[in-house]
Design goal:
The structure holds two protein chains of two kinds. By secondary structure, chain A is α/β, with parallel strands linked by helices. Helix content of chain A is about 40%, strand content about 20%. In chain B, α2 runs antiparallel to α3. Classes of the chains: A alpha/beta, B mainly alpha.
Chain lengths: ~180, ~140
């Protein structure tokens, strides 16, 4: 008598568990792991926002860890994130390289930096959005941690906060010998 | 009622005019390849639409990327790999057929087989019950 119900019940519970785990782990944009992690950072040579007519390459930052921060003046969350970047710049924790993504005019970026301050060591311009695709960027802001060897160690999709900085970035910069060298 | 019906019909007839993508290729084969690929690549910002159907900026950028790769004469697999190398397998609406995804492809067949076995067993049991049942149904005395 009991046996008749045991098997269907077992199947039901198994299915419920599988579906529950599936729903809990369903990927959303901010929790998708970047495929670049553990791989060499894409190399770029792009127009230098701060020095018109010149180019900027991320190859020149190899040798010590740096952050690549993808931002644009059209991006509301970037505005929210900005004071945190200013704090990091003041602490001189790591150089922050900006990737100015799809801003149609340089003057917009210049106005933004003048008004809110410039936390960036250097800023590369990606008007057509091609370079962002090489980094697998889905939406701004995104921040990549690249170690001294030029390997991507972490990718944050969304705004940097003090909590995320201390929990995800600092340990990877201090704890990893290849990063902190 | 008639007005409502007509306005709905009108709204439906206009929909194709909103098609966003006007990319044209001289070569019809390339046009077809472009359409095929843009419909099977996921817009990584809106997640549940293809880059062909999405109006988000990033989808437009990815369409341009596909257009250029198609023009360079790249194959479907090369273009898929290009996208997977940047955005991960999640960008493909159709999962790759590799060892890791095998269970995904085999699961429907396995479930169909289990369902078939269960159905056969139930049918056999019923047939057996009918064979054993020689007593007339209570109240069914015939006419």
């Amino acid at each position: 008598m009991m046996n008749r119900f045991l098997l269907p019940l077992g199947v039901f519970i198994l299915l419920a568990v599988v579906l529950y785990v599936g729903v809990q782990n369903s990927p959303d944009r901010e929790h998708l792991r970047s495929v670049l992690i553990g791989k060499p950072a894409p190399q770029f040579t792009l127009p230098d926002l701060m020095n018109p007519g010149q180019t900027l390459s991320n190859a020149q930052f190899k040798g010590k860890p740096y952050l690549l921060n993808v931002w644009g003046t059209w991006c509301v969350t970037c505005r929210v994130e900005h004071p945190m970047l200013m704090q990091l710049a003041q602490k001189q924790a790591v150089p922050i390289i900006g990737l100015n993504w799809k801003d149609e005019d340089e003057s917009l970026a210049h106005e933004w930096l003048q008004e809110f301050g410039n936390p960036y060591t250097a800023i590369a311009q990606d008007k057509p959005g091609r370079e962002a695709i090489n980094w697998g960027v889905t939406a701004a802001p995104e921040t990549f941690l690249v170690d001294a060897e030029g390997i991507v160690q972490y990718r944050l999709a969304g705004a940097m906060t003090p909590e995320i900085w201390e929990k995800e970035f600092l340990p990877r910069i201090q704890g990893n010998p290849t990063v902190s060298r | 009622m008639r007005a409502l019906f007509l306005s709905v019909l009108l709204a439906l007839s206009v929909a194709p005019a909103f098609a966003i993508d006007i990319t044209q290729f001289d070569d019809p084969a390339k046009q077809e390849q472009y359409l095929r690929l843009t419909h099977e690549l996921r817009c990584m910002q809106c997640l549940n639409t293809s880059i062909a159907d999405s109006q988000v900026d990033l989808a437009a950028d990815l369409r341009h990327e596909v257009r250029d790769l198609v023009n360079q004469g790249k194959t479907d697999d090369e273009i898929r790999k290009y996208m997977v190398d940047r955005y991960g397998e999640f960008i493909l609406f159709r999962p790759l057929t590799n060892a890791r995804n095998m269970w995904l492809w085999l699961a429907p067949i396995i479930f169909l087989m289990i369902g078939g076995l269960v159905a056969v067993r139930i049918l056999r049991q019923r047939a057996k019950l009918v064979d054993q049942d020689n007593e007339p149904i209570e109240g069914d005395t015939g006419r």
